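Below is how a single chain appears once it has passed through the pipeline. First comes the sequence as given, then the structure the pipeline wrote out for it. We keep one example in the README because the format questions we get most often are answered faster by looking than by reading.
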Amino acid sequence: MAEATGVDLATWQGWETGRRPLAHVKAGALLSLRRRLLALGAAPSVLHLLDPAMDADRVLAATIHPEANTRHPLADWVHTRDTAHMIEWALNGTTPPPLARRVVPGRRGPVAKAPLLSAPDRCVFFSHLRAHAESALRAGDDGLLLQRQALYLCSYDRSSEATSWMSHALHIRHDLIAAQGWTPHWATARSTAVALARVGNHRPLLDFIDRGLAGDDVAETANLNYWAYWLGAMREPQPDDGFMLHGPTSWEPVQLLRGLAAGLCQAPAYMDLYVHSLWALLTINRWLPLADPALTDRLDAHTIRLLDHGEISPRARRELSAVHYVLRETRA
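Resulting structure:
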């Protein structure tokens, strides 16, 4: 590979082992490397993950080894699902979905199966991340983005200490989740509720859907805009959460439908939020099921299974029934 890409062997080995961060490569050389890998047969879907992987490295390094008088990267840009998956890969060894089905050739000698951080580094990461979330809370509006994103990533910690800390986070932020409709802290309330659902506390997410989302047009638009960004239906990077208030003019509705349908199957912890978001998307885009008949068939079959056998909330059952009706109506 070193010979094929025109670099020396030590450089290539350094990239593979992480001794030489790829993010330190000059922009022109990195662009040439991407093009060469594509020409050699690398899967475009995997090459696409180089950017979120480098972003994840920046977040991990800045959290474990913070530099004085330097803003944390989570304060300067809204991270994506791909970046979050890369961070989780390093923290818990969970393979990102785009890579989960790929067969990795075996190599000689002891080779790590995942870019998993050591236990001491993981401990330091979560400890520092909780400190960032708490300091951002004290920073007021200037710390909203950092606080929200740090809080979400804290939910990847599976320790009992993390569960206790997240419960405390709910207690001091309960007024955010209880707020009606859109507020300047809406995105933080959403992330708090989602993070708590990840660690097994589902009540705050149900409360957020009932009070902070359902029936408020601004909040509904913000929710779909955020999903579009998170799921890759909106491709432009965003520096803050302001994009959530813009009209849905810059995202791809079919791509968003595919992402929400996949999430409904893959992430049962957030089922109520996925169901509500699917209902809202199909309410304003009733033509969407016609755009991908195969997806419509799979989604319809899954909604029937959930309605027949799933333990779901009364709201989710009503909205899932409406989704099922729209899917059937467009196929009639």
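The CA atoms of residues 22 and 30 lie 8 Å apart.

See the next section for the split statistics.
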